[in-house]
Amino acid sequence: MDAGRRGLNADQGFSLIEVIVSLAIVSLVSLAGLTLVDTLASLQSRIGSRYDGLQDLQLILSDLTDDFAQADPASLTLDTGALTILTKVCGAKQQLTLAMVDGALRRKPEDCLNGATSVFPVSEVRFTIIDSGMTEWTSWPSDEALRPRAVRIDMRMPEQPGALTGTVQGLFDLPDAFDP
Fold it and tell me: Do 49 and 55 contact (CB within 8 A), yes or no?
């Protein structure tokens, strides 16, 4: 019986303190890993949100470029923060209105527009008409102004986590003549 006991040593196995320290280290490493995964998921969500906002903004700016390229410059009106112009929408002449409504830049009519109908959120929208003498106007028509050549739209995006921020400016040329 002594022979069986001789092979066992008092140093074999782990003490309770060694097991507890090992579990604590594994727990800390696991917690750090979970924190990293959570941070990366949050970052990916914010990047995805900004990317979606950027795509929406790019789409509406592209659609506005098309709208103004097919517009009748003589029909342009700008008063009290709403810009209205006669343009070709869905193959027919139709009045298009741009205005800030409920914290978004909205294009109306919305029923027949192929692309984006709004940019959201927007805290401020400013429309400026540039005439052929390069004078800028914040209301139109004006008796002193020359023929309209371009429309500038300034949109201020509010400071929100994960959203587009800052000011976006679009400059849209108007055609020389309207082709009905």
Answer: no
